[in-house]
Amino acid sequence: MSNSDNQTEAWNIQRLLEWTTEYFQKVDAETPRLEAEVLLAEALGCQRIELYTRFAEVPESEPVTKYRDWVKRRAAGEPVAYIVGHREFYSLKFAVNSSVLIPRPETEHVVVAAIEACQQVEDRPIRILDVGTGSGCIAVTLAKHIENVKIGAIDLSPDAIEVARQNIDQHEVADRVKCFTGDLLQALPAGSQPVHVIVSNPPYIGSNEQGTVDPNVDLFEPAMALYSGAEGTEVIERLISQSIDFLLPGGFLIFETSPIIMDACIDLVNGCSQFASCDVVKDYAGHRRVVVARKV
Length: 296
Ligand SMILES: C[S@@+](CC[C@H](N)C(=O)[O-])C[C@H]1O[C@@H](n2cnc3c(N)ncnc32)[C@H](O)[C@@H]1O
Description:
Number of strands: 9
Strand order of the largest sheet: 5-4-3-6-7-9-8
CATH class of the largest domain: Alpha Beta
CATH architecture of the largest domain: 3-Layer(aba) Sandwich
Number of domains: 2
Low-confidence stretches: none
Shape: elongated
Number of helices: 11
CATH topology of the largest domain: Rossmann fold
Helix content: 25-40%
Bound molecules: S-adenosylmethionine
Distance between the termini: 62 Å
């Protein structure tokens, strides 16, 4: 995609996309065509779908310069979501930066399980805690989909909380979602009311798995969002034991984990006599992904 090529054939939208798709294929990008389209649409300030009606158009040099720079960054491994500054989750747009994990599709199962759990709650308002909120994707999505709800969104990282606040404002749910910075449930003020549901997508990769993780995840996403002790269970273990004091009778603890440590997580829940049941939800790929534990 050099400027000298311009002299022979114009760099119209179709050609830019074709060139970039081929380039991304060579550097092993996950979804070359899609990523090229997302970057170009963002650089041009249009919807991705609009590119298809503008194939023959030759864009101005300013957006193309920006696009070239972004293509280089992507080719160097930086995730598209960090480059464009947002990612879709549960059909909502979330601002992201390198302080927060990029929301993943499998985390949508936490949202679905929480919505189902809330259907079994008669009290109003329903009180929910999202522990390790990151971008706030779970908390905000629940606030958008559940009526009469109050949500506490907690994160140890002040920078992550800043991003969560941005998303809370953007989605106009500040009246329903309040942020707390600190370690798990200890972040809450003394005397906080117990809740009906605790949701979490905690860090759950063990340091013993380092080397098996996608190098670009390790390089670009925050370690605090990924790693949790030697086996991956450190944060989950503390979350399970702290949850007991913060859940109402019959309340739900719903958390994402990895299939690798799913059995260990089930054992941790079953080791607490205060939990009456422990169910598992599979993700889109059929992997055991989400634990739904119910307090007695
Ligand atoms: C896997 S990310 C999940 C982010 C977001 N909820 C999502 O699903 O995309 C885990 C989050 O937990 C936060 N975290 C890690 N340890 C924590 C702790 N001890 N207390 C509170 N938050 C913690 C990290 O900063 C990170 O934002």
